[in-house]
Amino acid sequence: MFINFSPNSALGQLLLLRSIAIVLQLVLVLISLWFLDKSLPEQPIFTIIAMESVFQLASIYAYRKASEVSPGAMVMQLVADILFLTVLLSFLGGASNAFVSLLLLPCIIAAVTVPPRFVVFISAAALVAYGYLYTVVPMHHHGMHMGQHLLGMLVNFVFMVIVIVTVVTYLASRIQQRELALAKSREKQLQQEQVLALGSAAAQVTHQLATPIAHLNLLFEELSEDFPQHPAVKDMQAPLAQCKTQLDGFRAQTELLKPQSQVHSQEFETMWQQLHELLTLQFPEQTISCQLPSESFSINGDPMLIPALFNLFVNAAKANEKCSISNLEVSVTISEDTSSNIRQTWSLSIRDFGPGIEMDKLALIGKSVVDSSSGLGMALLLSHATIERLGGTLHLSNHQTQGAVSVVTLPVV
């Protein structure tokens, strides 16, 4: 029979512990019958152990294809353990039995594996089971002279349930928080490594393209001298000039990103003029309806900020072109930030009127490489990494009526 769950999973550990418990129960009962107390009720005890064994085999068969189970299924398994142990102890001395403290085990397992509301339910079930063993069985077998001792054991059991469940639940939650923090740290590190690999690849490609573009410029100059009026020669001038401008800009950004370079703040108006000029040159048919704040403010002068924001404008303009629309709505606002030490933040909202972002890719785009009809989303990935590095956030969403909205929030310097 194929078993899918692992012994390291919560379900596998629970079933393994129950198998060990069944074997120990059978061994201890046989030792008691052969060497200690021969007056034990054999038939009820072996019947209970047999029923528990059948339940264990049925659980293994039922969950053989499941690597993990729901909290409700775990609660059912733990309640079954409490029930079997309670019935077995009722024939072995009840609350006076030394193994009655085993009722704490389901509470501890629940505190580690299921949500807090289920932990309270399992703890209440264990207390009810102990209360049954205290009120019904012990008095009948041992008389009233054991009353004070058994009452003390009951109080101690209640105290132990409260303390152990509280402590274990708190420690389990702290461990889960630490694991989540480590997972986020690993995810961010992997994203940074991916961005670094993309940046290295882009730098290598740019370096390799510099020489061919320089040769093309020389050929263009010779053609311009020989055929100054040829239409193809005139059409070559703008693309070659744009390539040269992009290469020069990349070299300038590389110099500014060196460790010895100091990045200063700059006025938002200066940065906005550069963005507007870039968008006008590359998409002259697009018009921008912008709402800018009346007061001036300073922003981070990082050399990668303008390319990161320009990528968002490029995506918005391309989305408009798909629907033959030539209007972009842009708004810039300044707000107080009470959630951090930053006093003020500025937000840039870019809305297009294109087809929008596919819902299955909305949560991933900008955070990882996403395959789409227009590319792999590397530009958004790089923009997102740059904005996060500058202490900001990038939020992508679909507008209620039409198009997509990109909102960038960054601190005011």
TrEMBL record:
Highest taxon of source: Bacteria
Sorted UniProt keywords: ATP-binding, Kinase, Membrane, Nucleotide-binding, Transferase, Transmembrane, Transmembrane helix
Domain Histidine kinase per the UniProt entry, residue ranges: 204-413
Transmembrane portions of the chain: 15-36, 45-63, 83-111, 118-137, 149-172
Its EC number(s): 2.7.13.3
Example GO molecular function: phosphorelay sensor kinase activity
Entries under InterPro entries matching the protein: 2C_sensor_his_kinase (IPR050980), HATPase_C_sf (IPR036890), HATPase_dom (IPR003594), His_kinase_dom (IPR005467), Sig_transdc_His_kin-like_C (IPR004358)
Enzyme class: transferase
GO cellular component: plasma membrane
Protein name stated in the entry: histidine kinase
Organism from which the protein derives: Pseudoalteromonas rubra
Upper taxonomic lineage: Bacteria, Pseudomonadati, Pseudomonadota, Gammaproteobacteria, Alteromonadales
